[in-house]
């Protein structure tokens, strides 16, 4: 499959590397077509990896991964041009933390909205699927990193897009427990897990944990 | 132990009944000393159960359980008189949902504050311990109701009060996995679990589930 990664940080690199390893063609996008971090990633990732602008990556991919910080995600997507995004699937795994009032951080979109919904509202022809945002990126791409049963949440307005993303999660990232939270308003529910995730990170001192719904 | 229950709803009744069953003396408080629901509960609960006003219950208990709705909790506590609350432990298991903007509901205290913190700020001499607010009340008092591993979160500013409440959770309610989130600011983290709890309730169609942190 052709995949566009938006963002060159640790999350983008981890997702991109895993998808290349699984045989997908991956273009990593950033503000500049010659971004150094993307160039380094391409040089070590073989001929299925490439780089470009955000627009290049969005144009290239059938499925796009939003690996930018939540506070700039809409602006980044806007920069690709709305026409570019039409009909594409965007896997939104970002979070939008608000450190303006100190720590622990709040959430930029509060409790009656979310980043996922904001992106979907801003780009109605994009199929936003919110998932993977409730764990460290090393676990996103390798569910077996955490022992025992644990879950990934998914939500979005387009059932077919959710199905495609679920298949990718299962086949490429090893996810067995995928909990469907319904339409994109479920994004506010999963984004509100971030504060306790941060708290647990502080308590445990590492990121090798994940949520599980026992029943 | 002497326990005061604030509130006569399903949560108050479930907590009160379990504590009576475990041998504690329990007074259920409400606005009126002759509240009918409290009277019914007393009549079926034996001689360790009694009823009174919120103030009576707060005066009676060494440990108090806040089983009122989060939107009225501070007002209820205020009605008991600050002197009454001095040095007492309050187990705050309430949540404060905001339905004013429709469904799914938001949280009244947003993402930079919480009910637990608001109560602690309002009554500095009360030892607020936030716990049990992330599950149905039938599970609060009977951890074995959900199979396998699952967790209860606890937080508060007073280590001794947390220890006393943890002992009660373990001995009377059967909790093995108690995760300490630190000081009372952890309340915003656990209160932000409510939106996904509500979503999962809608998805599963029942309340027999709970959060577990796998690691």
UniProtKB/TrEMBL annotation, chains A, B:
<protein>
    <submittedName>
        <fullName>NADP oxidoreductase</fullName>
    </submittedName>
</protein>
<dbReference type="GO" id="GO:0016491">
    <property type="term" value="F:oxidoreductase activity"/>
</dbReference>
<dbReference type="Pfam" id="PF03807">
    <property type="entry name" value="F420_oxidored"/>
</dbReference>
<dbReference type="InterPro" id="IPR051267">
    <property type="entry name" value="STEAP_metalloreductase"/>
</dbReference>
<keyword id="KW-0560">Oxidoreductase</keyword>
<feature type="domain" description="Pyrroline-5-carboxylate reductase catalytic N-terminal">
    <location>
        <begin position="2"/>
        <end position="95"/>
    </location>
</feature>
<dbReference type="InterPro" id="IPR028939">
    <property type="entry name" value="P5C_Rdtase_cat_N"/>
</dbReference>
<dbReference type="InterPro" id="IPR036291">
    <property type="entry name" value="NAD(P)-bd_dom_sf"/>
</dbReference>
């Amino acid at each position: 499959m052709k995949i566009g990664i938006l963002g060159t940080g640790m999350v983008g690199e981890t997702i991109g590397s895993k998808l290349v390893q699984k045989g997908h063609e991956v273009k990593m996008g950033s503000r500049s077509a010659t971004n150094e971090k993307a160039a380094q990633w391409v040089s070590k990732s073989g001929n299925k990896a490439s780089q470009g602008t955000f627009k290049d990556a969005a144009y290239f991919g059938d499925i796009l991964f939003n690996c930018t910080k939540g506070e700039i995600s809409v602006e980044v997507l806007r920069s690709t041009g709305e026409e570019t995004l039409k009909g594409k699937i965007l896997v939104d795994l970002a979070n939008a933390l608000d450190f303006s009032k100190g720590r622990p951080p709040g959430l930029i979109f509060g409790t009656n909205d979310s980043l996922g919904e904001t992106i979907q509202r801003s780009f109605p022809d994009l199929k936003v699927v919110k998932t993977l945002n409730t764990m460290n990126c090393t676990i996103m791409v390798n569910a077996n990193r955490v022992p025992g049963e644990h879950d990934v949440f998914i939500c979005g307005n387009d059932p077919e897009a959710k199905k495609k993303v679920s298949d990718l999660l299962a086949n490429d990232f090893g996810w067995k427990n995928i909990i469907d939270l319904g339409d994109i308003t479920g994004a506010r529910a999963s984004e509100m897990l971030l504060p306790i995730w941060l708290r647990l990170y502080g308590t445990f001192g590492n990121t090798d944990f994940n949520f599980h719904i026992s029943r």
